[in-house]
Design goal:
This protein is an alpha/beta fold. The chain is built from 9 helices and 20 strands. The protein has 2 domains: 125 residues, no CATH class; 255 residues, Rossmann fold, CATH 3.40.50.
Length: 430
């Protein structure tokens, strides 16, 4: 977690290198991890100014610097007042867009001839891509969960590490630990979008609403995914919508689908029930432990089979969810004698749930699930939801927002074009 309470400002953590706009790097009263009893820096990225000030103090501060960096293992570089600190395993060049990818402009070196390798240098406000270079190999920063996709053909990783300064006005994506399921017997990658300002010191205690999305490998700005359609670019969309004051700052967590996707999301009811158990009881608690969520009910969203399983899980678990979006939901499938979800909706009853439904296609041909979506819409209205058409939808537990994009195809490019509708409906700025 990246937050703890700021108790006091401690002048012993200040050095002349700090800017006048933030003359007293944050510190907390208490005992540092080394048990010395001395006050330590504010935990997490919020204590960056204090940690950089320790580096500036020189060799006398080496033990404290080591303790503070060890306490931040896995959080990536620290940034405050126009300077960044990188902690590496060995002497390594840090090349990024702020130094025109120079392999000589910034490099880590041993602090006071110790085994602690650090680089500190100027990095302007912004969201910057970078990589490490050891003289032979370019690599992602293994200490940093933040990343961005890269279209450069020579980048074998397809990604760069990212330093997103807290005042950049932009959000970023982070890699969370894999989610492994005891009920399904498999593992999947999990990623998250953190909104602009998430790591500002003044936001160290701020919490955010969370939306989980299915097919998480397809929802970001990866231009090489999704059969050439690119991803949904939810991170790009949310940066713009939040900055424009149309959407409240939110966290989005995406769990990748597996080779068992069709059965987990749609086709085999016993497997769908196992996936639901995994989503509610394994995936979500594990992922939420790594972000500052607001402890309110969650939102769930997906497309196609992901839209089906989103509605299925949300309707069956009103104790967990209060918002759901089904984009081009495939409401028809179940194997053997199991009924389709569209036939089960009336029996699931009215829930305190904001619902977004849409499709492309043509209802007369049921292309893109258009007719099935209309059928589910009608069932929800009969149960008590109040229907409106996007973008003129109100919010609340009885709200049902519907949209159709006639002729739109069943792919990520079409879903990306409509995504603004459901985020503005589910998370309106206040």
């Amino acid at each position: 977690m990246r937050y703890l309470l700021v108790i006091a400002f401690v002048s012993g953590c200040h050095s002349g290198a700090a800017s006048t706009s933030n003359p007293e790097p944050d510190a907390v009263v208490g005992t540092t991890a080394d048990g010395s009893g001395d006050p330590g820096c504010t935990p997490g990225l919020a204590g960056a100014a204090c940690v950089i000030a320790l580096y500036d103090q020189g060799c006398d501060a080496l033990p404290k610097l080591r303790t503070e960096l060890d306490a931040r293992a896995g959080l990536g570089p620290l940034w405050a007042n126009g300077r960044a600190l990188f902690h590496t395993a060995k002497a390594t060049a840090i090349a990024g867009d702020w130094n025109t990818w120079s392999t000589t402009a910034m490099a880590s070196s041993a602090v006071c001839n110790s085994d602690l390798f650090v680089a500190v240098g100027p990095v302007a406000t912004g969201r910057h891509a970078y990589k490490l270079f050891d003289g032979t190999t370019w690599s992602l920063d293994p200490t940093n969960p933040a990343y961005a996709y890269d279209d450069f053909a020579g980048n074998a990783d397809g990604r760069n590490s990212v330093i997103d300064t807290p005042d950049s006005g932009l959000g970023h994506i982070i890699q969370l630990p894999q989610a492994c399921s005891t009920v399904l017997g498999n593992c999947r990658d999990v990623t998250a979008y953190l909104p602009a300002g998430y790591d500002l010191p003044e936001n160290a205690e701020r919490t955010y609403p969370v939306m989980f999305m299915h097919d998480g490998q397809n929802i970001w700005d990866d231009h090489h995914c999704c059969f050439g359609h690119t991803g949904w670019e939810m991170n790009v969309l949310l940066d713009g919508e939040i900055a424009a004051g149309k959407v409240a700052p939110i966290i989005v967590i995406g769990a990748a689908s597996t080779t068992a996707r069709n059965n987990e999301y749609a086709l085999d009811l016993p497997t769908v029930m196992k996936f639901s158990d995994f989503q509610v009881n394994e995936l979500q608690p594990a992922a939420l432990a790594h972000v500052r969520h607001d402890d309110q009910k969650l939102a769930l969203a997906g497309s196609s089979f992901g839209g089906l399983v989103s509605m299925d899980i949300a309707l069956r678990h009103p104790e967990v969810y209060n918002k759901v979006a089904s984009i081009s939901g495939a409401f028809w499938p179940r194997m053997d004698t199991h009924t389709a979800l569209r036939d089960e909706v009336p029996g699931l009853g009215k829930q305190a749930l904001s619902v977004y439904l849409d499709s492309g296609g043509d209802p007369s041909a049921n292309s893109d699930g258009a007719a099935d979506t209309l059928e589910v819409r009608g069932e929800l209205v009969t149960l008590g939801w109040q229907l409106a058409t996007s973008p003129s939808c109100g919010s609340g537990p009885n709200a049902l927002c519907y949209s159709i994009a006639p002729g739109a195809t069943h792919d990520e490019l079409a879903w990306k074009a409509r995504a603004w509708r459901f985020v503005e409906f589910l998370f309106p700025a206040t």
